Amino acid sequence: MIKALPLSLLLLATPCFGEEPACDQPDGRAIGLVVPTADAAIAVYKAIANGRHDKIKPTNKILVNDKEDHWEVYQYPKKDRSTFNPHTGMETVRVVAGGGTLELEISKCDGRTIGSYSR
After folding, report:
1. What is the pLDDT of residues 8-66, one digit of tens each?
2. Model's pTM, two decimal places?
3. Gap between the terminal Cα atoms of the chain
4. What are phi and psi of 9, to 5 degrees?
5. If residue 103 lies in a helix (H) or strand (E), which one and from where to where?
6. C-alpha–C-alpha distance, residues 105 and 82, integer Å
7. What's 54's DSSP letter?
8. What confidence score (pLDDT) does residue 77 get?
9. d(C-alpha 24, C-alpha 16), whole Å
10. Sign of the alpha-carbon dihedral angle for 86, 88, 90, 91
């Protein structure tokens, strides 16, 4: 059973004061941006991931890219585990490949989401 997200969850943060996308909303429904900040986008991401029983890996952080009219939200490892050994002059580089974690595009205007899994 799919549950709708409460509006209070989507309106966590105050609107941003920068350049806002023009939201085309029907008369009487113009409330401004539904997902106005990166913090609000992270809250939406967490709610959807938890509702789908997708793991938010403790070794990952949730990152947000501002794409003007929407947010891109995804997980990425917290630490760069690359190391340099001064005695041997060798460097170990950690490469992140694959993943399989949830990625979302979240509309700032109305909160619509498009989801996929990282490859």
Report:
1. 443 343 344 456 677 777 776 667 889 999 999 999 999 999 999 998 888 889 999 99
2. 0.69
3. 27
4. -65, -40
5. strand 102-107
6. 30
7. -
8. 82
9. 18
10. negative
CA distance 63 to 51: 19
Which of 13, 67, 66, 64 shows the shortest CA–CA distance to 36?
A: 13
Contact 95, 113 (CB under 8 A): no
The strand pairing partners of 75, in sequence order, are: 62
User: What is the chain's length?
Assistant: 119
Residue 113: half-sphere exposure toward Cβ, Cα within 13 Å: 21
Query: Quick one: tokens of 26?
Result: 């029907």
CA 33 – CA 39 distance, rounded (Å):
13
Look at 65 and 3; give whichever has higher pLDDT: 65
How many whole angstroms separate alpha carbon 8 and alpha carbon 11? 5
Pick from 29, 6, 40: which is nearest to 108 by CA?
A: 40
Coil, helix or strand at residue 66 = strand
Instruction: Determine how many CB atoms are found less than 10 A away from the CB of residue 57.
Output: 14
